[in-house]
Write a structure and sequence with these properties.
- The protein is of the alpha/beta class and 363 residues long.
- The chain folds into two domains: 259 residues, TIM Barrel; 89 residues, Chorismate mutase (Chorismate Mutase Domain, subunit A), CATH 1.20.59.
- The chain has 13 helices and eight strands.
- It has an eight-stranded parallel β-barrel, surrounded by five helices.
- The chain starts with 22 loop residues before the first strand and ends with a helix.
- It binds phosphoenolpyruvate (PEP) and manganese (II) ion (MN).
- The site of phosphoenolpyruvate (PEP) has 8 residues, from loops.
Length: 363
């Protein structure tokens, strides 16, 4: 598919030395002061973490929330780099952030969810990066709203600006009301992003997604099970005292426990056995399409009959019977009835659409 060539010549996210898989980026939500930044960084370095994150400019929803130390925090990240050799990452949301971060030799910039949702801001960042002619790594978090085009568009703006160390971060999507997750994962969206841009590495941020420490391990495992390239996890030397995102930050010891619990999946090339099973799946899909085509032919014949007898298209009773019968049948076969409900709904919608067209046609 031509869409797959949207990002033809990407480089690895980081240089060889830092490119362990899965990629792990860890650090506090915000660099609050020099002491806690260094304390957290040294603990993470000892655990083998290679990329350290800390926000210095924090985009807070409320103006009354702690909004980071600002530019002076960049110096603390500089010390982290000098003392540990870790790469350092921070969030940028406007041209001045980009310039200051690059002047301070920050290695990784991330664009936050609120910024990705604003194409003007992303373009301003991209234009500034062009002028700086840099090899910096840029990670683009998903926009706050579930819009894959906006996410992809932001990645394209950066790619067009010459950024080749480019990655996506899935941190979930906001919604109204109380939910289990702070930001709903909506996994089909990052899957669609990967389909459209399969060489852009994708990292999961279970901290902002879950919003609570106990959700970080299961969300991280889910991301690894789905083949994500890495994780970005918030970690604070003393979470109880954190000035932002207190409920979701792990201590270094807790982070180690989460990491120890994770099963990393084997990303090697598909085996012969897998290839054989995939051929069988392809055969099933061929059969499915033929059957669907036969079914649509019958629906068109019924449409013509309804037209000749001046009947309306939708017969709610009949639709209800089909749904009920097929859901029951699916359950008997050990399938999820709600899956069958969705399948039958899509098929029925298409049948109705075609029949309405037939009824309206002049012939
Ligand atoms: C962050 O990573 O600290 C942050 C503000 O994230 P998001 O943009 O995902 O809310
Ligand atoms: Mn945070």
């Amino acid at each position: 598919m031509s869409e797959k060539t949207l990002f033809p010549d990407l480089k690895p996210l980081f240089g060889d030395e830092w490119n362990a898989r899965p990629t792990l980026i860890a650090g506090p939500c915000s660099a609050e002061n020099e002491e806690m930044t260094l304390k957290t960084a040294h603990a993470l370095h000892e655990m083998g973490v290679k990329v350290f994150r800390a926000g210095v400019w924090k985009p807070r929803t409320s103006p009354d929330s702690y909004s980071g130390p600002g530019s002076k925090g960049l110096k603390w990240l500089g010390r982290v780099k000098d003392e540990t050799g870790m790469l350092v990452a921070t969030e940028v949301a406007m041209a001045s952030h980009v310039r200051e971060a690059l002047d301070a030799s920050i290695d990784v910039l991330w664009i936050g969810a609120r910024t990705t949702a604003n194409p003007f801001a992303v373009q301003e960042i991209a234009d500034t990066l062009i002028k700086c002619n840099t090899d910096v790594t840029v990670l683009v978090k998903n926009p706050v709203n579930p819009d894959v085009e906006l996410w992809l568009g932001a990645l394209q703006r950066l790619y067009n600006a010459g950024i080749r160390r480019l990655g996506a971060v899935h941190r979930g999507f906001s919604s109204f009301g109380q939910h289990l997750y702070r930001n709903e994962p909506q996994w089909p969206i990052p899957i669609e992003l990967q389909r459209r841009a399969d060489n852009v590495p994708i990292i999961c941020d279970p901290s902002h997604m879950g919003g609570k420490t106990e959700l970080i391990a299961p969300l991280s495992q889910q991301a690894l099970d789905m083949g994500f390239d890495g994780l970005m996890i918030e970690c604070h030397c003393c979470p109880a005292e954190a000035l932002s995102d207190k409920e979701q930050q792990l201590s270094p010891t807790e982070l180690q426990q989460v990491l120890d619990s994770l099963i990393v999946r084997n990303r090697h090339q598909p085996s012969d056995e897998l290839a054989a099973l995939r051929r069988l799946i392809d055969q099933c899909d061929d059969e499915l399409i033929e059957v669907l085509n036969r079914r649509m032919d019958l629906c068109r014949q019924i449409g013509n009959l309804k037209k000749s007898q001046n009947m309306p298209v939708v017969q709610a009773r009949r639709y209800d019977e089909i749904l009920e019968q097929r859901m029951r049948q699916a359950q008997e076969l050990g399938m999820d009835p709600s899956f069958m409900q969705s399948v039958m709904q899509v098929i029925h919608e298409e049948a109705v659409r075609e029949q309405v067209e037939i009824l309206r046609s002049k012939k």
